[in-house]
# Entry
Amino acid sequence: MHDNSNIPSKPIAMKYLRNLILFFLVAATACTSDQQPSAPQEPQLPELVMQIQKQARLYSTECQVHKIISHNDTQQLLGSILGQQFSIDLPLGKRSVAIPIDATVKAYIDFSEFDQSNVSRRGDQIEIILPDPKLEITSTRINHEEVRQYVPLLRRNFTDEELTRLEHAGREAIVKDLPRLNLTETARQNAARALIPMIAQMGFPTDNITITFRKQFTPTDITSLLQSGK
# Structure
């Protein structure tokens, strides 16, 4: 005869099996719970500010400006008769010049002093207030091959000094034209294209991000934004 005293009865064996299955189910559930990704943290503004500061100087737009500066002068005879002053334009004394000037104008935004005062947040809406843009006329060049002069026989040619003065006058004319180039709006749009994807990667929905300047710039403001060129 066999001794079955050490063999658990069927009800006890089923109970052991059921408890063993429950143990493995609980363990599997705990492991699965531990492996689940944690909920994304809400983006922090100091981190956002730091990332934007890393942009340093963001050149956002560049344009080429072509302008022709013309100048006419007439040689005059000056004098006085019986105490009366007179001036007479001399025949064949009028000379003229047309000078083509090419200039490169750049707009950039300097983020070196960007801080939390440039960020406005209302709920899930975030507004980035850009620092005022800066403008530079980085180069001006006279196309000497296209300079046209008319100088009569009785007059001398324009000197280099005179042409240099006219070049400076051309630069001033370009400065006056800056407002109509709409560079500040182009700078804002290009800055938005650079910043919005970066901000979105930090957890802000793209549709909730607004990029603005602190004000609408007047023609007088545009001139004040001009920096010294190289």
About this structure: The beta strands are 57-81, 84-110, 119-122, 125-130, 134-142, 148-150, 209-213, 226-227. Helices lie at 10-35, 45-53, 160-177, 183-201, 219-224.
